[in-house]
Design a protein that fits this description.
4-stranded antiparallel sheet, 33% helix, Rossmann fold, 30% strand, 6-stranded mixed sheet
């Protein structure tokens, strides 16, 4: 495959049984993403942006369409038809996901969360320990929080930890669902620095953004969504440095 990701005719709807309604979330979405490219998706809340990301990650199953991903381990694989075991492997080793929310085991510390993510990639405990401290420092999570449970963190601290855990694995494909939603200006700058670093290392990214200022200067192409479909495409003048 010339592209890392090829989505064709993706459609997804939800049935509201209590209301007897069928809600069309996205319809006939087609997009091709080259290796090392960063694609941004914009649009109002409810336009279908998150549905695309969750369909790629396997959280949602499609009614129609295909999502072909060029996996290092499996070769070309249709994520729309991948088994649960295949998706678990890809999430651990190739595809990262950053959401606005942090869902973790209740008695797992911030340090353990990041360290375990690195160990999943086959690194030694020594390297995992060093990389964990490095990225927690980068996001300025106070050292007093490292061995605390994230349930006690503020919304911004949880989001920074979520981003750190995904980025430290350096995934081949990184999905970003409003990665700066509750961050201050300085924290956004730190996220942007790491995203630029991942781009230089060849990570392919697909992100949802409301913060258009943050997105500018990062993405190669912007897709604007309206009523579950792409309404326009804007090419950005960004050079990919591999």
């Amino acid at each position: 495959m010339d592209n890392l990701l090829e989505i064709k005719d993706l459609s997804k709807s939800f049935i509201l049984h209590n209301l007897g309604k069928n809600i069309q979330a996205v319809k006939d979405i087609t997009i091709q993403i080259k290796k090392g490219e960063f694609i941004g998706i914009t649009g109002k809340s409810g336009s279908g942006k998150s549905t695309i990301l969750k369909s790629i990650y396997g959280t949602y199953r499609l009614q129609e369409g295909s999502i072909w991903y060029d996996s290092t381990h499996y070769g070309p694989i249709n994520l729309a038809k991948a088994t649960e075991r295949e998706m678990i492997y890809l999430r651990k080793h190739e595809i990262g996901y950053v959401s606005q929310f942090l869902n973790v085991m209740p008695r797992t510390t911030a340090r353990q969360l990041v360290t375990e993510a690195i160990l999943e990639m086959g690194q030694t405990k020594e390297i995992a320990h060093m990389e964990t401290e490095k990225i927690l420092d980068h996001f300025e999570l106070g050292r007093e929080l490292w061995d605390s449970y994230p349930a006690t963190f503020s919304g911004g601290e949880k989001l920074r930890l979520n981003i750190a855990r995904a980025m430290v694995k350096r995934p081949r494909l990184l999905l970003l669902d409003e990665p700066t939603a509750s961050l201050d200006h300085e924290s956004k700058w730190k996220v942007k620095t790491l995203l630029e670093q991942l781009m230089k290392e060849g990570t392919t990214m697909l992100g949802i953004f409301h913060d258009l200022e943050f997105m500018n200067g990062l993405v190669n192409k912007e897709y604007s969504m309206k009523n579950g479909q792409f309404s326009r495409t804007i090419q950005k003048n960004i050079t990919i440095s591999l």
